[in-house]
Amino acid sequence: VLSHLKTITTPLLDSLQFAYRANRSVDDAVNLALHSILQHLDSPGTYARILFVDFSSAFNTIRPALLQDKLSQLNVPDSLCRWIIDFLTDRRQHVQLGKTVSDSVSISIGSPQGCVLSPLLFSLYTNCCTSSHQSVKLLKFADDTTLIGLISDGDESFYRREVARLVSWCSHNNLDLNAQKTVEMIVDFRKVTAPPPPLALTDSPISTVDSFRFLGTTITRDLKWELTISSLLKKAQQRMFFLRQLRKLKLPTKMLVQFYTAIIESILTSSITVWYAGATVRDRFRLQLIVRTAEKVIGCRLPSMQDLYVSRTRRRAGRIIADPSHPGHRLFTRLPSGRRLRSIRTRTSCYMNSFFLSAISDEH
């Protein structure tokens, strides 16, 4: 059912919904968000406000009747709509604590936790929740929702209007915004700044943070990557202990390489297309030091961090170029000769070191 439902609805999904889409991942969502912000900040007199929205028990708030209307609008056959609604209604549920079991009750709201359909159903349920203004981007990855306001000349009217629209939409669709866990980050590279007016959701003030873990990657207000890289290094160094223990047990080199690739390299390269190009020389050296240490333990050569970054950037860029529906596809345009990609002009090194510009530069 999941595969069939994806086939029907994917062409009609919001382009900024990145979950359950072919050739898309959390890296695509983060890279596109950073591209929008950095492209905007490349102009003078600009800053960005990023609202990381948190829903309370998101999957548990889906109303089957509303979902049925939304599925019908996405051309889902009536028979499949009825099957899904029947699946979601009159579910029996009880609670067990030790040997004590509560009475069963009937549940007719929400989607079951752990069900393979739940994330896609939530994505379809929120598909019509979009931004109506080009200066405000509403990015979604299942129930992870982020509102990015691109502010020019201090005019926040469109951003605040879209925040109000989001609150209103949630109210009409039975989604509970958790104002206490919803936070905002302000990215402002101007030399002379004044504190922007605070933001509130449903009369609750929103906290402003200096860093936030966004889809697995730590974003900071200065858009630097020391925190992300330090966290990855700590995890990788902890796992090096097990590699040394396996070496002491005289495991074959092939098995040691397999362990390194699956357990250590996978950590070092987590979302590498997002942060590696913007990493400092010192941080790149620290990352490569882990690889060199692993080479000494295993006794053979391993792919360098630079090689891993280049190969994964090319692979990700290739998938985006091959997918015209991808929101980043338009950024890869070829010159009339057809042999090279058109460069994107920039005034800042931070923008130059973002994924899309790095991928275009790499082809050149």
UniProtKB/TrEMBL annotation:
SUPFAM superfamilies, sorted: DNA/RNA polymerases (SSF56672)
Pfam families: ALKBH8_N, RVT_1
InterPro entries per record: AlkB_hom8_N, DNA/RNA_pol_sf, RT_dom
Gene Ontology molecular-function annotations: 2-oxoglutarate-dependent dioxygenase activity; methyltransferase activity
Domain Reverse transcriptase: 1-219
Domain of life according to the entry: Eukaryota
Name of the featured protein: Reverse transcriptase domain-containing protein
Organism: Amphiprion ocellaris (Clown anemonefish)
Lineage: Eukaryota, Metazoa, Chordata, Craniata, Vertebrata
